[in-house]
Design brief:
168 residues; alpha+beta; two-stranded antiparallel ribbon; 28% helix
Amino acid sequence: MNLEFVPETSPILLQECKEFDFNNPPFDPKEFAQALHNKMVKSDGLGLSANQVGQPYRVFVMRTGDEPYAIFNPKVVDVSDKELSMKEGCLSFPLLYLSVKRPDSVRIRFQDESGETRTEKFIGMTARIALHEFDHMLGKVYTQKASSYETQRAIRKRTILKRKVKKI
């Protein structure tokens, strides 16, 4: 399965994703999870959602080691009151880093690539990655969580950086 990123202006990034139907799957969930994982690793990412590669399903993978950690049909069931602000990037917005405030921990109920329902608690950076990817499922991108001033500044920095890279 060959996956390609959609452009950052693609409408699919701003649309809510639909449930992945394990009873009538659009494709093999294990193959898809592996393909998403491979694309994420090859792109040096920490997470990747299906809609970032043009698939409108509630599926994402996270980097937790060498094996794909796939989350199908996630539902956030609890978040911590404690929030932390950190710089985030996104494979859909190369070289654009923004400060985003997110809960320090999250509990998510989901199906794994076999369709089994699980509930897991994620803490720290793993919680941040899971929540970033979960936002993709809702049709939200991290640029919507930062101030417009910070976003415009980051876009200017990215434009300058891209010009410098082209000169090399």
